[in-house]
Known about the structure:
CATH topology of the largest domain: Dihydrodipicolinate Reductase, domain 2
Oligomer: single chain
Distance between the termini: 40 Å
Strand content: 15-25%
Helix content: 25-40%
CATH superfamily of the largest domain: Dihydrodipicolinate Reductase, domain 2
Number of domains: 3
Bound molecules: nicotinamide-adenine-dinucleotide
Number of helices: 14
Amino acid sequence: MSRPLTAVLCxxxxxxxxxxxxxxxxxxxxxxxxAVAEPIPSRRALALQRHAIDPAMAFQxxxxxxxxxxxxxxxxxxxPDRDHVEPALSLLARGYHVLLxxxxxxxxADCWRLVEAAESSGRFLVxxxxxxxxxxxxxMKAFLQSGKLGEVMTVRHLEPVNFWRFCHSFVRGNWxxxxxxxxxxxxxxxxxxxxLYYLLEKRCLRVSSFGSLxxxxxxxxxSQAASRCCHCPLAESECPFSATRYYGDLLRAGEHGWPVNVxxxxxxxxxxxxxxxxxxxxxxxxxxxxxxxxxxxxxxxFEEGVTATFTATAFTDHRVRETEIHGSLGTLKGDGRxxxxxxxxxxxxxxxxVPTEGRHLGGDWAMLESLQRAIRTxxxxxxxxxxxxxxVSHAMALAVEESRLRASVVEVQDAQEGL
Length: 419
Ligand SMILES: NC(=O)c1ccc[n+]([C@@H]2O[C@H](COP(=O)([O-])OP(=O)(O)OC[C@H]3O[C@@H](n4cnc5c(N)ncnc54)[C@H](O)[C@@H]3O)[C@@H](O)[C@H]2O)c1
């Protein structure tokens, strides 16, 4: 059995405790969480209990942890979107390798601060772009590299958020107000821009984007609707976004993971009823303070005339990102599970499954394994991505959002003099 990476966990929320914490509990050869920094006492206590952490290794927040001596090899930063840059900088300075959740930062200047700090520290800074590590996207990239598609011309990529996921996170939840978290296109789609960059191996030069918050607005609220689903006559049958129906069905089906565990920690009907009567997740979707877009499209031009279109939308059923890549010799389609190659020369269609296991199409496992190998050997090339690569996707997201807001074509600013 290999020696696990030791880690301090900053932010024991959904991603920190239920994501990385779960990985640590499943694979003791891979990751061991030895300290936690979390301001919410119940979450801190849960982390201590689940990972048998010494209570002396519990901290109120990342700043207190960063003042202590170095306690592990890696610092996992899974704090809210607006609290990524300062902990990552402080923990790099303390000598940790940092696994930083996306978005790495919300401005280009802060992305560059992180790149510079990581490169001068001699430590690894890995941004949680897990999808590029997944066997599925790795298989897609290997196919592109095989040359069978010929010269890649265009890409059509869809991020089908799913109407329920969208309501949970982007109407009622933590990512619903851009000023408190991040613009939707950064929060959700920096993964997609990272994938396009990874697959095409080309810089994106300029973008154009349209989108708005069109549906989840007060003026679309039916006249009979109540401000909470638990009092609403439409909640049982008519409203697709009913919180009582959605979370209730999941709980009755025995689901205790995401998103139920974001709403309640005591998995009973009564706890759910109370949470939906008082908490944010029981609000009518037309009566929330949300301001992020519910659909957005982007057109992207890459080096050498390669183009891509990208759609991110709330209004889909439950499925995985879909990608279609058009080359001079054929077309490759992927739905998150199967890849399908249509060969222009033979006129044959080949379809095969790429098995994946675990979250993010297996990307969580593969990213942690790569980080472990990179740290054990000191070989950065074992990581699929570094902070400079991560910066590119963020520069793309920032340009796309600027284009939407300004209604004009925007050039992607991902280069900095001297760096
Ligand atoms: N890579 C991915 O695919 C992926 C998936 C999910 C979430 N995320 C990202 O992970 C981050 C966390 O998301 P989440 O869903 O776990 O949110 P969350 O709200 O469930 O968890 C964040 C935790 O950080 C804690 N926190 C707040 N301030 C802190 C501080 N000063 N020091 C230490 N902890 C602090 C909060 O109390 C909370 O427990 C977000 O940036 C999110 O975008 C990434």
